[in-house]
Amino acid sequence: MLDVVQMHFTTVDYVIFALLLVASAGIGLFYAFSGGRQRTTQEFLMADRSMSCLPVSLSLLATFQSAVAILGAPSEVYTFGTQYWFLGCSYFLGLLIPAHIFIPVFYRLRLSSAYEYLELRFNKTVRICGTVTFIFQMVIYMGVVLYAPALALNAVTGFDLWGAVLAMGLVCTLYTALGGLKAVIWTDVFQTVVMFAGQLAVIVVGASQAGGMAEVWRKAVNGSRISGLDLNPDPLERHTFWTLGVGGVFLMLALYGVNQAQVQRYLSSRTEKEAIMSCYVVFPCQQIVLSLGCLMGLVMFARYGENSPLDKGYVKTNDQMVLYFVMDVFKDLPGLAGLFVACLFRSSAVETFNSLATVTMEDLIKPHFPNMTEAKATLLSKGLALVYGLVCLAMAYLASLMGSVLQAAFSIFGMVGGPLLGVFCLGMFFPWANPTGALVGLAAGLAMAFWIGIGSFVMRLPGPTPLPPLNTTALPLFDNMTTTVMTTLVSAAKPR
Fold first, then answer.
1. From the CB of residue 379, how many other CB atoms can be counted at a distance below 10 Å?
2. Fewer CB atoms < 10 Å away: N or C end of the chain?
3. pLDDT average, residue stretch 187-212
């Protein structure tokens, strides 16, 4: 029988969490008052195109590694087994194609915004449509991705919901608005180290308490949580090599090929070679993050087996169970829970502030004010980063009022990403494509994606979904695993 773990943060946990936030803010302040002091748009928005391969790689890794990887993957593996690990098979092509197709095109054109390419290839209308679509995608995403893990954390631990949201949102806004892209990249490096440290601490301590890694593996095998290669072509099966290893390639291309947040990091590299190498370096890092998430799920299973806190009613969703597990493992080790929470709250929302400021400045403002001085352009860029940071907090507040509609908001990120990828691929791979075709294709892609995504959400029957057996569930109608994992984060009860 499981004993109920008393969920609360100690003073040491709060201190650790606060210190890591202060360190992040300190990096932004350092770059605000050192070097060129962010006096030009090239320095503020593009890090003066002076970044080396390693920090760019870790920033690429951090950009979309938030609560999805840290909370979602372990609960997925605990419940359904290690088949999810085969998502890593998609990383090779998903990073190789951007490295040798998208990066050379963007880098040699010396672009600041990826959507400049759409004007060069098609026309200004296509560029503006792409930019507006991206802004819509990221504005919806950034508030929700900040609010959802805070809601899950509050439901499990009583950690102050709006204290966490405001602290992270304001700190991220501060170092982004003051330090520019260089501060964002180096903060990503620091927070990636924190992320690895948090995950490793949970795995090492949890495995030790379970009797060692050999015992963890034995229990996972006996519990049918170790999955082999599933080549079943049935698209309705929850996870197979084809849905993860092949379907995941398109998810990776949308994120690492044409998303402005990632493109901006490529373009901040000193040389095209270093930009390409950053994709090769991030490949093993992605595999490590995925493997750590899966391993954490196995350690959870070794601790609880089939007698999970979810079944006992101690938590309300699978993702809350990860937090319950962390509090359980660290109940006699004050400070480590705070480290894990800091790892959880390294927000991918911040990655969007600078990229949104860039596309707004380069695609929507500069074309109408070609004679704007560099000083004014830089000041306006900083103001835009600040505004988008405040918009993020406003969106987090709106997310708290959205209720079940919040789950649909998560899926919008994926619905928009696919059609945008399609427009770039149309321009690069089909020389006979014209602007009309690009606009019609983008509109048709968005219409189809929203019809399927929103339609599946609206038609979903009310009430809890029964837990299916391993590897035999129907594939969710949302567009990708990111949506599937993230939507479960918001099904908790109202915050305390």
1. 15
2. N
3. 89
